[in-house]
Amino acid sequence: MTIEIDTGVEDVAVRLHPAPRQTFGSFVDCNMATAWVGEEFRIFPGKYGEDPVWGDGAHLMIGRGGSVAAAFARDTAELTPPVLPPVAPRAADGLHGAVWFETVYQHPEDPTGRTLSALYHNENYPETLPFDPATGRGLRDEDWPPGLRGADSVQAVPRIGIMRSTDGGESWVDRGILLEDRDERMIRLPVNRNECFPGGVGDPSAVACGDHLYVFYGEYAYPEAWNARDWDDDVEADGQCVSVARVPLRDLDAPTGAARRWDGTAFAAPWDGAGRPIESLRIPAAEGGGGVSQGDRRFYWGPSVSWNEAIGAWVMLLGRVDAPLWVGDSLFLSINTCPDLGDGDASQRWSRPVRIVHRPGHTLWYPSLQPVDSAEDLELRRTCLRLGARSRLWFKDMTDEAHEYLSEHEVELVRTGAAR
Question: Which superkingdom is the protein from (predicted)?
């Protein structure tokens, strides 16, 4: 049965249509980055790198097909590994920790479509990124909070980096870190009890607009230098949730230091400083919102942003943490009707999220919209970043019995004033 949901935005509704169930047959733990390379639709699921808590990853892969459905129909044996940069020694510059590709930007100046920039979510621990007193970079192993695997495990800190490919994703070169939070803002013991992150930035979704790439991401650190004595839950919550930064497209090959976070009035906060989250995407304390470090507060996370050509607006999908251990049984949608994200505070003008999926007893992560293989989608080479009226909703659905990355609905976005 088709369901129509009021988005809260004048003249815009979302309809969920039942669709034949599809499942993706390999590991997914991130936004699903997609791109057309020649006649192939390519997807980039999986994890790569060093992870002493959950195990090293060697399953960041490429899935390919002559259509969107064909790429998502691949099972693990049909995926191929790209050539990725080696993990650097602990004290050396280079790639550290584990990475997941979250967005792939295709450089329009390359007519072959083979030049790609991948924004990656990068997780580290004090062990994999030790603190360097000379530079102030890295993580101090002091009062570090325990992680998801129990008292003997430790929490990871996410940050966001960029890799570049000139062969359509077959091989990648690391270009460096785009956004990170400094060690001084990590929320440690005895305050931190969330078992996930003491701080950091992660789960990015990026869209090009004008001369910039706008990066939407989760922000988990304290908004100033942290200490247990002066910690304040309200101050913490005021600086957390989904935030946005931007980086000039010309700087994607040398991103470190080039990005600026939104600071409440402009893109003026440094790449490693504290910005301001998007106010409409914060959950008030009266509705269960609060500091991420406490482990029992609600907050939105995991944005997935696309431009919808049918309604002429930006669309964001979100998960929501409702309980300890990153548990949340719902997915949400927000709309931004400002075409130019660089116009004043346009990047902040997102509608209050509305729930589009609710599955009690399930934990839902990483929603994304993907093309539906219509003749128009195929002709226009649409991807998860640019979509038409109808798209496929994909997400990770987890229960005690199974973890699946699946799609059971098409999402249709419509202008309600238009003729039906």
Answer: Bacteria
